[in-house]
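Z., the sequence and structure:
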Amino acid sequence: MKIGMACDHGAYTYKEEIKQMLIDEGHEVIDCGCHDTNSVDYPDMAKACADLVVNKEVDKGIVMCGTGIGISIAANKVKGIRCALCTDVTMARLTREHNDANMLSMGQRTTGIETCKDIVHTFLNTPFSEGERHKVRIAKISAIEDAQ
């Protein structure tokens, strides 16, 4: 799988550890930054990764900041993105099954690294599988975007 990743300075260490895990598992990772712990603005990182997802340059995107909140809000401003902030594997599974989320957000200050790794595995390996009722809801989300 080809995965885009991005973070701000508040999640740099987690991004690097998760990126290496994904590479070791055979995934291709496109790193949109940041590349050290110097302060950066998470909206810039979120947009870079979200653009890869909507342009179909990657299969999924993973973004991180201190809490995962700000970067997920920013990613969701890009038309076509459904970025879910997940703090456990149940959320990761359900957002794939029900929402067909194409981006995952997590927080380094709020979720332990091993839990984040489990969330990533669940997110990447769970198909969108809940059928017509959820397709209708996703279409309604897209209609909201189109109306803006």
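The first strand starts at residue 2 and ends at 7. Helices lie at 12-24, 42-54, 69-75, 89-99, 113-125, 132-147.

Let me know what you think.
H.
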